[in-house]
Specification:
This protein has a ten-stranded parallel β-sheet. It contains nine helices and 18 strands. The chain is an alpha/beta fold and 418 residues long.
Length: 418
Amino acid sequence: MNHPNPNNGNQRSLDSNVFLFSLAQETGCRQVTMMAEDHEFSSVDDIIKDATQYGHNILYMNYKGLVEIPRNLLETPICDIVERLYLKRNLLQTVPTDIGRLSRLVELYLHSNSIANLPKEISNLVKLEYLDVSCNMLQSIPPSIGDLQSLKKLHLSNNELTKLPQEIGNLKELVSLEVVNNKLTVIPTQLCDCLALKSLILDRNQLRELPRQLVNMTYLEEISAVGNKLTHMPADMGMMPSLKSVYIDSNPFLYSVPFSLWNKQIGANGCHSADVQQISEDSRLVVEMDGYVTPVPPEIKQVYTLQDANQPDVPSLLDYCLKVIYRYKNLKDNDKDKLYVDRTSLPQYLADLLHIPTAHCLAPGACEKPIFTVAFARVFKLGWAQQWQNTNPTAIPFLGLCCSKQCLKLFTRFPVPI
């Protein structure tokens, strides 16, 4: 399916002029626009002087050739007035450690500078809601970013980031996160604790997978991971109640899409261009059927199709134990048979599986039994639901997982709810 390209960090980053227009509309006046025009032709000293004199709380210092944030901006009374500060396309290399003196700051726009790091004192901006440091030279984000409890939008595109701090999961008000065109190889599972998140844009990184914990993000509406190295996606992703759009174009190691996404808007052009043998060499199981070849999630250690001869319907001892523990630990609190499991006594990957299984059975009739390490798979296209699969002969298929042979037979006959 063709869709507008959402993958340019500059396009996705909030441009000050766009914000300016929307703010002017919201206030119903031209004052904001006129203020920005005045600032464009004013010196920095004049901007600060006027703001101090007239109480302006929005300062535009874009394109001023600044090599540092002006010191007099961090002095009283102006530091107690400014709420929105725009410093796009200057020559800034650092952010001062006393940036927290801007006690009322709601938005900080540092797009297109040469900033190499953010000070840990960035956390002192306790009212900050919007932070844009796209198009800089950042190699890391301080853990203290997690202390910005009011932060709603965080834009980090076009930097040199190789990881995000685990503390990012403390941002309970975060609605939008953009980390386009960096060098991320993994997303911390703690990010999935940002339950208010609606938009997650991770295009053009080096990600091989997305955390299964994403399925807990009940408000997430859009995920974009275009131009990465994904080999699979969380099988239950389509069960996220608010999810509308998933863009995964140009992932050469991605050979299938979870069937749970069958009724979502999907962009998946330019996938499976790499040799699947490169994936199977990583001890990944591969399903071959009806001319399709696809790896299964790495948690799956046994996989069967209806084409397999003499396929067993008996789970491994590990899988059986996981199912029993999962069943009894999820009983109601007042049930005498409820089982309390000390997850800290288990290997981490088993504890994670018990918390969030690999998948849930897709068979009709609301089976939805958890799938851990053994699955029964079907690989196919559903062209009437996803036109891109119908019109593009090289489009990747769906991968559906069931908990048993019987469920797989039902799913093969009736793949979608009737």
